[in-house]
């Protein structure tokens, strides 16, 4: 792959920084951060050249690893003084390129903010630093019978600060909500170096809801330095059903039927045949490899509640045409059912040299139709797709299989991915469920939003960061870019396909 | 009461508008809104001179009642052109003065936006106009076995647009969340007259979370003209426990114990002896009038789940020292238990010529202590207090009893109310649970937030409304006002009372 191909077409670079300016900034940074926390050698910068959107690579100008909130404040003040942009980074597991570095910018790593500061079982919350791993919170809370609900697939590795920046989801967000629904308070450093507290430990906080505004803002409004998360009591019991279907659309309809019945499963996941086979080969979960689709439905709660729900969902699945419905006999089988789902991404990775994970959301009732359309596009682009996703939320994760060494395949894959996202918008959905926009979906933001809405986004950005130094070029495209991309906004009432059910 | 006393000390008036300017604006408004929708006679303006914060009265300069979104757009463009401020108003039931009119401003009434546009049982949502009454949504959805969860006490009268503007709560928000957790999409007209759509019908929406930002922004960022709300399936069963305590603090500890056990009741309400007696005299709910406090705990869900929870909560209440625990024998008794709670405000109103309802939130574990301190303050101010509130959320509603005809009592009541809110902040809580800041709590915002946080609020406001024409003088105080009020911000780590448990 040529060096040029490693730069995403989407990313605009800010102004160049001269060697002299860079050296001056390094000197000043060394005055506020311990010397091992300022990285500028080629070798040291290499681990930071990409995040989870690994198709692209680029070395940052500098990496700074502060250890205290005061140091973050001083680093941001210096960057502001030098007019050098800053990209904050947690564990670097993000899939849309939110932490992708700038060649002319500082990468602000929060890895040293890795302490759990307090666990308060009475008020069911925990105060943590942003570099704490998602799963580490639940591990620490387990002694009190509590856990932190949002569980992105990367939860062993991803950091809670990154989860907040991207408003991460996971299997259980169907019942327990996204990150924004599971946090109470944030401490944030502004680009001016001011420390502000957003939200609070109560039900509601007066003033504008800057807590929600900051959540999912992809590092563009401030740097998160402390988080108070909600903790939930571990449910008494969890049980999983596995249902097989000989038709993908029918599986999609079963999802709508379960949710429509009033039951809210803890998780409701779907895998298509490509994913089933890949997962089965990889971890031997005992999946029915002939099925066109399987659903995994987890129910949790009290013993009585789960027993009742299991019966009802079982009947529903059979009524919806499932060819087979299995209930995990014990906890071991339950974990095996999930093991296949959780290993699906690496399993699919064995089918092809590379894959590209998309993330779009559609109304549940359109699942079957949209999956059929993705299948048609797969033929059209000549690229295989594996679907494994949060069906209960209507949150699709099509994995496009490609080979980066075949000239033109990455570009064709990007086009295909963009088309899938536009399809989601066409069906009244959105271009991201839980992975964020980053650099990956900038163009599709032009499809999702009107120019007036984008203008309002830019005004909000300017209220926090008037000079555009925080993670520039990510998440919200300029109107100029949208004009170049083409006026693709799908207005309500002007949907191109008259057969799409309107609401 | 003198005319001057009717003007809240908190409200700053914008610049005066000359009779000529006013007449010109009326003429232009008549060009865009039907003539019966532009009110300017003294008589016609009177119904709009206050909202639910009825201690104060003031006539608006004009009332405009548009009937379509296009008319709202044109009205806002005219107000912007004339630099005349605009206060949006739903049903006028708000308790903090958010819709209190300006003598030099236009009151934009949304009463004619009273249609339910669509109910979509498959995706469990409804698209409604802002003037629709809260309860009317549940009534319309009942045919599908669905309902809209947030239920402010005023739900018969209050409008959904006002609910969004104030991020309203209610008895059931303990389990089902505030308004912000129960809406999907908003259509909003900006002060420039642009129509923008915030949020969407999917799980998550890309870009900054302007849906959450707009919710609870008290009419200061835009005018809400359409709302898509989530609908929930009606639970199979609901059951209520009534527990009596001979000590208020013990009742507070029982609340913390129930929530700490992992059960999330649909509602968990507390009434003190003043409220119990008042309610019992008024509606004969069968309350134990000797009790110092009662708790009402509603559990909902499937039959099995409710049966199990009832047993567990019953045991907990007895272990926590309840002198009596009753379970409603049938639906009639359940409704009677709630009738007392729901009638508590008017019932307390019979004890005294006037009352002033406060709304603050504290961490649940401090309920007992804070109620004791409010009791001490009641003696100090020589004003009786009745407490009836959402205990499960830690959301207090002390009703201060006073007589507006006794010189100085209203002022003493306001001081007492302010002190209660500062007490909430002192205990790590907030100055509002669900009623908003409006004009009532402007000074306490200075206690709640640092100058840096308030500055950020003003920057966000300016991103939507740079000239400050939307509901000026509400919700977010100027730094100048805070300086006059005194530097009262309680910093974390500098709490004045060392015995307050820190987290």
Task: Provide an overview of this structure.
The structure is a homodimer of 503-residue chains. Chain A has four domains: 3-109, Uridine Diphospho-n-acetylenolpyruvylglucosamine Reductase, domain 2; 116-233, 2-Layer Sandwich (Uridine Diphospho-n-acetylenolpyruvylglucosamine Reductase, domain 3); 237-347, Alpha-Beta Plaits; 352-485, Alpha-Beta Plaits, CATH 3.30.70. In chain A, helix 1 packs antiparallel against helix 3. The first copy, chain A, has helices at residues 19-30, 42-45, 69-82, 134-141, 160-166, 173-176, 210-214, 248-260, 273-283, 303-319, 331-342, 344-349, 367-381, 409-426, 442-448, 451-464, 479-485, and strands spanning 38-39, 62-64, 86-89, 106-109, 116-120, 125-128, 146-147, 183-189, 195-199, 223-230, 232-233, 237-245, 267-272, 293-301, 324-327, 354-357, 360-361, 385-389, 395-396, 398-402. Chain A is built from 17 helices and 20 strands. Chain A is an alpha+beta fold and 503 residues long. At the A-B interface, strand 9, helix 7, helix 8, helix 10 and helix 16 of A face strand 9, helix 7, helix 8, helix 10 and helix 16 of B.
